[in-house]
């Protein structure tokens, strides 16, 4: 996946959930490193 698209997606999702972008992105990255992201 294109990294810019991924960042945009994370940004949109963090806004939708009302979570600060930085906090959401950190959780997203940790989940991906542990293999929990199903994509």
Supply the key terms:
single chain, mainly alpha, 0% strand, 72% helix
Structure description:
The chain is 72% helix and 0% strand. With 39 residues, it is mostly helical. It has a domain at 3-16 and 23-33.
Summed up:
This protein is an all-alpha fold and 39 residues long.
Write the layout of secondary structure elements.
Elements: H1 3-17, H2 21-33
Helix pairs in contact: 1-2
Helix share of residues? over 70%
Query: Number of helix segments?
Result: 2
General shape? globular
Order of helices and strands: HH
C-alpha termini separation: 10 Å
Major sheet attributes: none
| Helix vs. strand class | mainly alpha
Number of strands: 0
Question: What value does the Rg take, in angstroms?
Answer: 10 Å
Determine the strand fraction and express it as a percent band.
under 5%
């Amino acid at each position: 996946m294109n990294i810019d698209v991924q960042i945009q997606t994370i940004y949109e999702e963090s806004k939708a959930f009302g979570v600060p972008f930085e906090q959401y992105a950190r959780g997203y990255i940790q989940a991906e490193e542990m293999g929990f992201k199903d994509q």
